[in-house]
Design goal:
Layout: H1 20-43, H2 51-58, H3 62-68, H4 76-91, H5 105-136, H6 138-141, H7 144-163, H8 174-194, H9 208-223
Helix pairs in contact: 1-2, 1-5, 4-5, 5-8, 5-9, 7-8
């Protein structure tokens, strides 16, 4: 997904007759509000962040925030867009997967798991709020197309990697295998990474290193097992 395609990069809700200076101030205020909200989510859960705190951190009047967003919940779709932008930047930057010529399938799975976990840890404060609302009020997060684009990009990124190891991957349907990898990583990682103290992960006493190693082993075992 191209980050430049998001609607907030245009007039951002302003009338066509708005002066350029006003449009610029509007965009600047919007960016300050979103950055402030993202920073506060690092410090406390979504439900404990107040509108007054967001406005103070952003350096704008509370009224300015309310003119753009009717309440704190209205910021969730914007934060979701922010996460997608960061995801795109990450996948083309530090998250880019490059393997040496002599890499094995196990090496590839190991890199995928560790890079995925690294992204989750880096953006957990944003993803936690988005993920919570995706469960409770999915209409607040974003349209269905945005979610499908996100999920499709995730599993499609695994397909060329799996195709690169035809001698090791035993699954007949590579597309399905890529989807299962995406589902596994999303499900296990989100529970363990986003809700370590509020989910079944509480009773799952395992170090981070052990968790990642066993995740790699499970995925590798699945990929190298022939279809029944």
């Amino acid at each position: 997904m191209n980050a430049n395609s998001h609607s907030h990069n245009g007039n951002d809700g302003q009338s066509q007759g708005a002066h350029p200076a006003k449009q610029q101030r509007s965009r600047e205020n919007r960016d300050k509000i979103v950055r402030a909200f993202a920073e506060l989510l690092k410090e406390k859960p979504f439900e404990r962040v107040s509108v007054a705190e967001i406005a103070e951190r952003a350096g704008v009047a509370v009224g300015t925030l309310y003119r753009r967003y009717k309440n704190k919940d209205a910021l969730i779709p914007v934060v979701f867009e922010l996460y997608l932008e960061r995801l795109e930047a990450w996948t083309t930057g530090e998250g880019r997967i490059e393997l040496p010529d002599d890499a094995t399938l196990y090496d590839a799975v190991n890199v995928i798991v560790k890079k995925g976990w690294s992204l989750l840890n880096k953006e957990a404060h944003i993803l936690r709020a988005v993920h919570l609302y995706a469960r409770l009020r999915p209409e607040m997060v974003g349209n269905e197309d945005a979610w499908k684009t996100w999920e499709q990009a995730a599993y499609q990124s695994f397909q060329p990697l799996l195709n690169a190891f035809p001698g090791e991957v035993k699954r007949r349907d590579i597309d399905m295998s890529a989807k299962m990898m995406t589902y596994f990583i999303n499900t296990f990682f989100l529970e363990k990474g986003l809700y370590p103290d509020e989910s079944p992960a509480v009773g799952f006493e395992i170090s981070e290193d052990d968790f990642l190693r066993e995740s790699v082993n499970m995925l590798y075992g699945y990929l190298t097992t022939k279809d029944k």
